């Protein structure tokens, strides 16, 4: 029989994480009294998870790192975590083979290891002693200087931006997004959605998953000359309002006319293998590869955006991509200046973007023409 002292709290029922292999009763009995002998998963579930204010993707990252720690760590007790244990964990992450038994078998890149370690540091930081910089510290782990990130090889040949002809080729190749052997329906295979994404990436420059998380509530067609898109970057928490030019506005209106989803602009566009397979299909059909023959990444569109704007108006590229915005201005005050709006309206568009806009505009106008009344 469970006593009143160990009665489950209501909020525990809302947990949306992988169930523990340990009995729930045993977990509840240790609530609010984790010790240095507790596991990282126990500390996370009891003390950390309920205070997190992050999206589903971030929660998935936390769970992934905890799974890796349980698999690779020599001692799972949190009280044993110190600088050497962290360095050993980082080394094991770097040397572990992923996608084993496939043609893609490889070790993690330094960038991936550093990303995982940033998530791990957020967990460790919460377990450090409580102080002015860490007011929620649990005091389960003695403070230590966290190891520096793994150095990433810098190769200038890896810096890549699309030319206007390449962007046109990608735009026209969006009809090849759907895998040949796939017979299921998905909005992810809709060429117009991919074309609209390319147009917004060039003209508005959001990060990949800020772009595909956009909702119709983020779009205001009445603002400025052709409208504007407002979003808050997940990485930096900066809110920006980017003006739309005519080509971008037409593409968004064309998508809205399809009524695919009442909330999302890009329904079904998620961070999964199907998304990357579709993007690869588009790149292959467009014969678009960067230097050294690597596959182009979708985030190369953001680099292209910044470069194209700075070619036309110096400094506008860093404003559009959010790199020049800091502090309170970035969150509340900074709006598009006349100079920024001029750059947006005059940014030279790839030929396919312009041709697509004309075609979609003609369809939108035709849809507004009422059919003659029956005699």
Tally of individual domains: 2
Q: Mind describing the biggest β-sheet?
A: 3 strands, antiparallel
CATH topology of the largest domain: hpI Integrase, Chain A
Binned strand content: under 5%
Q: Kindly, what is the distance between the CA atoms of the first and last residues, rounded to a whole number of angstroms? A: 80 Å
Write down how many β-strands occur, each being a DSSP E stretch of 2 or more residues.
Answer: 5
The chain-level structural class is mainly alpha
Element-level helix/strand string: HHHHEEHHHHEEEHHHHHHH
Rounded mean pLDDT is 82
Helix content: 40-55%
CATH class of the largest domain: Mainly Alpha
Q: Count the DSSP helices.
A: 15
List segments where confidence is low: pLDDT < 50 over at least 5 consecutive residues: 4-30
User: Cα-atom Rg, whole angstroms?
Assistant: 25 Å
Molecular shape: elongated
Largest beta sheet: strand ordering: 3-4-5
The CATH architecture of the largest domain can be named as Orthogonal Bundle
Give a structural overview.
By secondary structure, this protein is mostly helical. It has 2 domains: 110 residues; 209 residues, hpI Integrase, Chain A, CATH 1.10.443. The protein has 15 helices and 5 strands. The strands form 2 sheets. Strands 3-4-5 form a 3-stranded antiparallel beta sheet. Strands 1-2 form a two-stranded antiparallel ribbon. α3 crosses α5, α7 runs antiparallel to α9 and α9 crosses α15. The radius of gyration is 25 Å and the shape is elongated. About 7% of the residues have low confidence.
